[in-house]
Every structure is written in structure tokens, then in C-alpha cells.
Amino acid sequence: MRFGQTWGCILVLAALLSFPGASLAGNALEGAKGAAMGAFTAVADDPSAIAHNPAGIVQLQGTNLYNGVSVVNVTSEYESPEGDSEATFFQLFFPPHAYLTTDFGCENLAFGLGVYSPFGIGGRKWSSSGLTRYVSTEGVIATINLNPTVAWRVCPQLALGAGLNILWSSNYMRQMVNQSPLAFGDAELKFKGSGIGIGGNVGLRLFPGEKFSLGFTYRSRIRVKQTGTLTLENIAPVLQPLFCGSDFSTDASVVMEFPHTFTWGLAYRPTPRLTLALEVDWLLWSVMDRTTLHLAHEVPAAEFTDFGLNFDWQDSLVIMAGMDYRVNECFSLRGGYVYQQAMVPEPTLNPGNPDSDIHFITMGFGYRPGKWGIDAFYAIGFHVDRQVDNAILSGKYNSLSHLGGLSVGHRF
After folding, report:
1. Which candidate among 16, 379, 380, 396 keeps its CA 20 to 30 Å from the CA of 358?
2. CA Rg value for the chain
3. Global pTM?
4. Local confidence band at 323 (pLDDT 50, 70, 90 cut-offs)
5. Annotated domain spans of the chain
6. Architecture of 3-411 per CATH?
7. What pLDDT band is residue 21 in, cutting at 50, 70 and 90?
């Protein structure tokens, strides 16, 4: 048995699993009104505009707070080519959002600060004795973005905005290691790491007439070097002399790339009570091409060393349509549809991130009796079944997403 081949496969799979949650990018994690409508870039009329289109905050007068939380649940099933099946465990994740905007008494300037999760929270948790255990038993990614913003109304028909993105990202992954050729039970491999990257964003909002508004936003690529610890537990006795014991731990790091994002939006108000919105996002996930998992302490005798990792992700299109109907001065009903294209190709698809095209149906309401306001939403995501034949784990995957959230706002 060649140790190099065995550990090489383990480490490649480990790094592939360290970025499982990208399929939950977008409006659903950034504010309840935008999530209920689906499309929000050209509307951008609450403080969550910081995340959607920074130019929008110049619409807000005085000082405004808008805070809340989303709830995310994603479940998946895997069916092997032989017909055996397995499902993930139930998990809930709670990405928060918080925004503050103020004009400091200026007529055409506004400033804001946002804290939110721009990319998905939560991967999949599989059984440690199940069909996927040698590829993935658990994978979670968390992102929190600190986003200071400034906006300027150039003229009544045009507003511009810009901001800084300070992105903190962490991930945790776990999988079992097959040691049956060594006449011993499974080992467990875990990686936990985090890091910070910096990027920027710009946006504009154009008003060609009373009934129309146009929006555009660009968010830059962000490079995050995640540093942490890689551990291997329950190592087979025959290998323990090489690893100096039954457990092994080393500092480790890997660089992850978050995508350039281009967003175009259109809003139309056929009546004062009704707003219709369209939006297209283009996420350049192809920046996740190739990286390296670095180990501070290698074990050359077992060929347990740094490995190059091939992701080969693809650019992804997201199309959104939504509406807001104001029933009366205080209460609004909302709904929308979102199509999200998969970014993970068949050769690198795995149970830690069984990515596929998704169709979301969104709905929600808003209630603003005065200076206080509350928005709520629910969305269900139907993932297209994905049949793959690759060197990682062939089979069929199907998934379902549930998302909900609440945002509370106050104008001072």
C-alpha cells in the first residue's frame, strides 16, 4: 500500500469540502424585505441597501436602524449507483444582519455601516458511519462582512454609492478515513480555520422617470487566507510511529476566493401601491480554480504533505423577479421568484456541497405603523436533482432549502 496515494486523496477531498455553503448566496441572508421580494437592487429603499446597492441609502432621511436574523435549513439525500441511500441530519443556521444609516443633516449625502452574511451559512451533516463518510461527514462555512458605505445624490435622477468590504470567513469540515487495509477502524480528519479579506463595492441608482428606477452594483473579488488546525485522530497502529502517536495535529492554511459580483436591477411602479422588480446577478465563481492546502508540519515518510487542489468552479447566473403591494399606509405584501445556477461542475461535485440549479419561491410582508417597522419572509428552494459520475463519489443528489427571517427597523 502506498501512503502517498492514500493521504493525497484524503487531503484533496478535505479541501474540496472546506467551502460547502456557496449555494445560499444573495438576498435571503441580507434583510427580510429584499428576501421576500427576491429582487431589490433597483428598489434599495431600506438600510439593507448597504448590502444590495449602496446608492440606495441616500433615499433615507435622518438616522435609521435595521436589524434582524435569517434562519436556514438545507437537507440533502444521496443515492449510490447500487441504489443505497442516505439523508443529512437536520440543522439550523442563523446568519444575522445589522445596518445603520444617517445623513448627518446633509441633503444629498448619506453614510452607512452594515454587518451581514453575503454568502451561504451551512453545509451538510452526514452520518459518520454512512455512505458518504469517506468524503464528508460535516462541512460548514460562515461569512460575516463589515461594510462601511457612503452615498451621494449627484442630481435628482442619479445617486452613487461606494463602500469597503471587510470579510471574515471561517469553515469547519470533518470526514472519516478508511483504514481497513491496515486492519484498523476509521480515523477522523478535521479542519477548522478562519481568515479576513478586503474588497470594495460601488453602486448607482438612476431615476429616468417617476415610475422607473435602475440599479447597478459591483462587488469585488475577495481573497481570504484561512488559517487554522488540521487534526487526524485514531490513527492505525502501523502508522503511529510516523505520526508520533494515535493523534496528529498541525497548523494549516488554505486560500479561498470569493467572487466578483455584477448586479443589474430594474423597478417599475405602475401604481403608487405596486412595485415590480427584476434583477440579474453574475457571480464570477471561476476565481475558485486552483489552490493549495499548506501544512505547517508535514509527515514526508507518509507522504502527508502540501497538496494542490483543483476546484474548477464555474461562473453562476442568478435571475430574480418580485413585487411589493402596499395594502394600506402601514401594511405591504411581497412575493418573488429566484433562479440560481449551479457553480460546481460534475468532476468536483461532492456530498459536502452537492450543488445544483435552484428554484426559489419567496413571500413575506412588511408592517410600518410609524417610526418602527417589521419585515418578515419565507422562501423555499427546490434543487434540481443532480446525477454525477466522478472520481470523488458517484451517485444522485437531491436537496431542499427552507429559509425564513425577520428584520426590525427604526427611524430616529
Report:
1. 16
2. 23
3. 0.91
4. very high
5. 3-411
6. Beta Barrel (2.40)
7. very low
